[in-house]
Design a protein that fits this description.
alpha/beta, Rossmann fold, eight-stranded mixed β-sheet, 8 strands, disordered N terminus
C-alpha cells in the first residue's frame, strides 16, 4: 500500500470534504480498535473463561474514548457529546425498595415506567460498565421521554438460570405497576434485548437495541428449555439494528411481527459516532412518548 492510499484510508484531524455516515464510522472505528485493545470476553462456560472485570472496565470507558476519538478523527466542529452527557440535566435517582434496581426520574414524568436491561452477554455488564456506560443512557431516555426508568441490576449467569433472571424482571415489572404506572415498557440492549423479548408478555411496549436474540450459546442447564415467543405475540416494538453488527443478527423472524417497527443505524454493536448514539437514544425516547399516548 503506497503512502497516498494510506493517507486516504486513515486521516487524523478531520478533512475538508464532508464524510458520509459510513465513512465517519469507518474512520472512528479504525482509530478506536487500533488504539484500544479489547480484553478477552470469554463466558464462564467457555473452554478458557475470562475475568469479567477487565471487560466491564473496557466498556465503562467507551463513552469517553469514543468522544475523544470522534474529536480527533472527525473534527472539533461537530457535536461529539454522548447521550449520557447531552440529555440528562434535571434527572434524579432513587433506589427501588425490594428489587435490585436504580430508578431514574425525569424532570417531567408522564406516569409511564420502563424496565431497562443492560447488555453483557448474560454474564457481565454490571458494575462499572453499568454505572459509567449504560445508566447514563438510561437517564437520557428517561429525561427525553418522560418515562420513569427502572434500571434492573439483574442476576447474571451462571449464578442464576435464565428462568431466574426472568423472574427478577417480572418482580421489577410488578414493582413498577405497584407504583401506579399507567403503562410499563421495557428497553434492552443486546442480551438485555433478548431478556426483554423473553419477558415481553409483561410489557405494554418494548424497545430493543441491537438485540442478540440467540440463546444457543448458553449451556442447556441454564436455559432450562426457555425460548423466545413468536413475533406475532410481541407488544408494540421498536427494533434497532446496527449496519455493521458482528455480534447480533438481523432476526427476520422477529422483524416479521405485525407490531414491530425496525430502524437501522450506521453502527457497530457497541461503537458508533456520538451523533448516531444520540439518535438511537432519542428514537427510544420518541417511541416511549408515542406509546404513552397510544
Amino acid at each position: 500500500m503506497d503512502e497516498h492510499t494510506m493517507r486516504e484510508q486513515f486521516q487524523v484531524g478531520g478533512q475538508d470534504r464532508e464524510l458520509s455516515e459510513p465513512e465517519q464510522l469507518e474512520q472512528l472505528a479504525s482509530y478506536f480498535h487500533a488504539t484500544y485493545e479489547a480484553p478477552a470476553k470469554n463466558p464462564p462456560w467457555s473452554a478458557e473463561p475470562s475475568d469479567p472485570l477487565p471487560a466491564d472496565t473496557f466498556d465503562a470507558r467507551m463513552p469517553d474514548r469514543l468522544t475523544h476519538a470522534a474529536m480527533l478523527m472527525l473534527g472539533s466542529g461537530l457535536d461529539h457529546s454522548m447521550p449520557g452527557v447531552a440529555f440528562i440535566e434535571g434527572v434524579t435517582t432513587s433506589n427501588a425498595d425490594g428489587i435490585n434496581a436504580q430508578v431514574f426520574h425525569p424532570r417531567n414524568p408522564n406516569g409511564t415506567y420502563a424496565i431497562s436491561l443492560h447488555p453483557g452477554g448474560w454474564w457481565k455488564g454490571g458494575g462499572v460498565a453499568m454505572e459509567n456506560a449504560w445508566r447514563p443512557e438510561v437517564a437520557a431516555v428517561a429525561n427525553l421521554s418522560g418515562t420513569t426508568m427502572v434500571d434492573l441490576d439483574y442476576p447474571l449467569l451462571p449464578g442464576a438460570t435464565v428462568a431466574e433472571v426472568m423472574r427478577a424482571v417480572e418482580q421489577a415489572a410488578q414493582w413498577a405497576r405497584a407504583q401506579g404506572a399507567s403503562k410499563v415498557f421495557a428497553w434492552g440492549y443486546s442480551s438485555g434485548g433478548a431478556l426483554a423479548v423473553l419477558c415481553s408478555e409483561l410489557f405494554d411496549a418494548q424497545a430493543l437495541t441491537f438485540p442478540h436474540l440467540d440463546l444457543s450459546m448458553l449451556p442447556a442447564e441454564l436455559r432450562e428449555g426457555v425460548d423466545f415467543p413468536g413475533a406475532d405475540t410481541f407488544p408494540p416494538t421498536l427494533m434497532q439494528l446496527a449496519s455493521n453488527d458482528a455480534i447480533a443478527g438481523t432476526y427476520e423472524w422477529a422483524q416479521a411481527g405485525a407490531n414491530v417497527k425496525v430502524r437501522e443505524y450506521c453502527s457497530e454493536h457497541r461503537v458508533s459516532t456520538p451523533a448516531v448514539a444520540r439518535q438511537r437514544v432519542e428514537d427510544v425516547a420518541e417511541f416511549f412518548r408515542a406509546q404513552a399516548s397510544a
